Amino acid sequence: MSVRRRILGVAAGAFGVAAAGTAVGVARQRRVIARRGAGETFEFGSLRSKPRTVVADDGVPLHVEVDECDDSGATPRRGEPAQARLTVVFCHGYALNLDCWHFQRAAYRGLVRTVFYDQRSHGRSGRSTLGHATIDQLAHDLKRVIDEVVPEGPIVLVGHSMGGMTIIAFAEHYPELFGDRIVGAGLISTTAGGLDPHRILFPMIPVPLGGELTHRVVATLARGHRAVDGLRRIGKAVATVVTDGFAFGDDVPASYVEFVDGMLSATPFEVVAEFFPSFRTLDKFHAVDVLGEIPTTIICGTADRLTSVGHSRKLQSMIDGANLLECEGAGHMVILERHDQVDAALDQLIAAAAATVELP
Fold this sequence. Notes:
Strand content: 5-15%
Low-confidence stretches: 1-39, 72-84
Mean pLDDT: 81
Strand order of the largest sheet: 1-2-4-3-5-6-7-8
Order of helices and strands: HHEEEHEHEHEHHHHHHEHEHH
Radius of gyration: 20 Å
Helix content: 40-55%
């Protein structure tokens, strides 16, 4: 039997053991999740605007949606009217898509010009070209999005998880834009390096792997990615419980868990594997000092099991004047779990950014 088949067999067996050995516990936990109720009445994924396509520098089409500001004269609910002249660009995280910003999009719609886009190989965007599934490439993609849909005016960048890493890489490659075009930054549940990558992978493959073994297994499984996707579908009950435990800190409504699990499940394992090496080599703390030139807000849940709050504390210590919001008990998907706190912090960030520039 080949090494590849042995590894695939081990992975399949691990899924089987997880499904069989914990079947009673998984079923019980799924019932607990379901009883939490529906939460907010918004339908996740229902907020849409006319799609635009921005072509990345290597030809990959990026799906972009822009919510324009309502200039009808109505008094905005959030902050000063001048904030409406800003554009806020949201960058989502690993194995998610632009819909993950549901509550932020609902909060700012019509009040501030906002841009949402699917990172390459995620959501409705095209698949990355070979060797370009990197954090540095995501930074160049962000530059293309800005050039095409925000060609002028001040910008606040907001990124969650891999989206925050995208912003930090953007700062490394385009530092001259900070304080000029980029007037504010929000870094949520993210880091500039020092990750434990196998923890990031776990919600997508609920198999207890660690260290160097993870990278060898991921590389092998990537060659049999269709089989892995099949295993993920078969093990959906386990995956839902794992998503609940790793994405959230508190007992959130069942709809939140299902929403996140749906985004993770919709991301092909081939894409997961392509981006995975980038997290292992990520080391961009040297680039974060430029963020000290603009209002910067850092947000993280204290129960984040993927990018722990220690990463956010380190970022704050290295970015002059940065504000840190620690959401007690919240997990990695703090943008959903504590959306009111996150939105309030972003309100303050946008107001601070608006105060640094002259707006019409």
